[in-house]
Amino acid sequence: MKVGLAFAASIAWERENSLELIKTAETAGFESVWCGEHVILPDTIISKYPYTDDGKIPATADTAIPDPLIWLAFAAAASSTLRLGTCILIVPQRNPLVLAKELATLDRISDGRVELGLGVGWLKEEFDALGVPWEARGARNDEYVAAMRALWREPHVEFHGKYVDFDKVTCSPRPVNGSIPVIVGGDTDAALRRAARHADGYFPGEGDPEKLAELIGRLHAEAEKIGRDPAEIKINIMFGAQMADPAAGIAELKALGVDRIMVPAFFFAGEDGLERLQQFGETIIPMAND
Question: For the segment 107-120, what is each residue's pLDDT rounded down to a tens digit?
Answer without folding.
Answer: 999 999 999 999 99
